[in-house]
Each structure stands twice: as C-alpha cells, then as structure tokens.
Amino acid sequence: MKQFATILVCLCLASLGSVSAAQSITDEAAVELVIQRYQEGCNSVLEEFRDIDADLDEPVIAELIIREASIYEIALTPDGSTKGTVIYNDFGCIGDGLPVYPWCGTGGCGFEIVVHGVIYESMFGGRPFSVTAQRPDPTTKDDLTVVLIPIYGSGCEDSVGSSGAGYQTCIVSAWWDPDFNTFRSRHGVIHLSGLNR
User: Fold this and answer.
1) pLDDT lower than 70: segments of the chain
2) What is the pTM of this model?
3) How many domains does the chain have?
4) What pLDDT, on the 0 to 100 scale, is given for residue 116?
5) Domain span at residue 125?
6) Positive/negative CA dihedral, 121, 123, 129, 131
7) Which H, E and C letters describe the chain, residue by residue?
C-alpha cells in the first residue's frame, strides 16, 4: 500500500549516503511525489480492470509493488559531486488478483531522475546508467559523464540506415550540464517532468 511504498522510498534514499542532508529532504519529497503519482495510477488501473465478480460498490484497494532495485543513484559528473536518483518504473499493481505492470512494454518502462529536488523523466527505455570517460579532444583533459539509456532496437538505425529489430539493444545518451543545471540530449530524451511545481 501507499505506506509500504513510502517506507521503501525512505529506505532507498537512506542507502544513498552520498546525498547531502540539505538536498536529501528535497530529493526525498520529490521521490515521494513521483511514487504518489504511480500509486494514483495503480488505483486507476485496477479500477478499470476489476474482477468480473467484484462488488462495484467496494473501493479499489491497490498495492503498489516497488522493488528495492527500482530506486537507485547514478553519478552525473566525473567527480561524483552531482548525482541523480533514478526511479525506474517497473512497478506492479496488485489488488484482488495477479499483479499487473502497467508502465512497462517491450521498449522498457521509462523512468524519472531527481536532481537537486527537480524531477526529470523519460517515457521509454531500460534502466539508465552512467559512464565516465576522457574526451578525445586534445585541447582538454576533462572527463565527461554520460547517462546511457537502453532502448528498443527499432529506435535506432545501422550505418546504412536500416532500422534495428526489437531484440537488438540500442543506446541513446544524455549528459548533465552543471552550468545550467539541466540534461542535454538529442530530441530531449530526458526532459522536465510535469510534476515539478
């Protein structure tokens, strides 16, 4: 239920020890706002798919299932000073019957990333992760941290312009711009969420 989801979110955030105390309150509130949205979605989904024998006068009691691995942290800068809390949307909803997973499809589940209390999102893709590498630019020795997002194979083309098959993983990327405190990517693969107030 909602209380279970909130406790799990708090435990996951507590395990992300490198987030500063001042920031963790803001990030925690943002993560809880995201979880609340999914709890409401869970209630709606189960309202639509009630059992044929269900009493329509009874309220829907939906439990949002959140795996501990669904909320995790990734580095956004080479020195690790800026991190993002990822909320990967492989959540389940359970009521009277078997659990359903309404936010996932063949192209992944989508995710939110909370950075400094601001919620960003991507509506598709697998679990994002980050890598840091040295730029091949001879004029700088700066490293760059990039967020990589696995997507459905047909979302990319090969070197002759042919679309890939679904099982062929493709990767799209974004990076955190610390000067403007935003993600940058082609086609805005990670963008601001409407949940920000």
Assistant:
1) 1-25, 48-54, 59-60, 96-98
2) 0.79
3) 1
4) 94
5) 2-192
6) negative
7) CHHHHHHHHHHHHHCCCCCCHHHHHHHHHHHHHHHHHHHHHHHHHHHHCCCCCCCCCCCCCCEEECCHHHEEEEECCCCCCCEEEEEECCCEEECCCCCECCCCECCECCEEEEECCEEEEECCECCCEEEEEECCCCCCCCEEEEEEEEECHHHCECCCCCECCCCCCEEEEEEEECCCCEEEEHHHCCEECCCCC
Residue 197 lies in a domain: no
**pLDDT at residue number 93:** 86
pLDDT tens, 24-80?
458 999 999 999 999 988 888 777 666 666 677 776 678 899 999 999 999 999 999
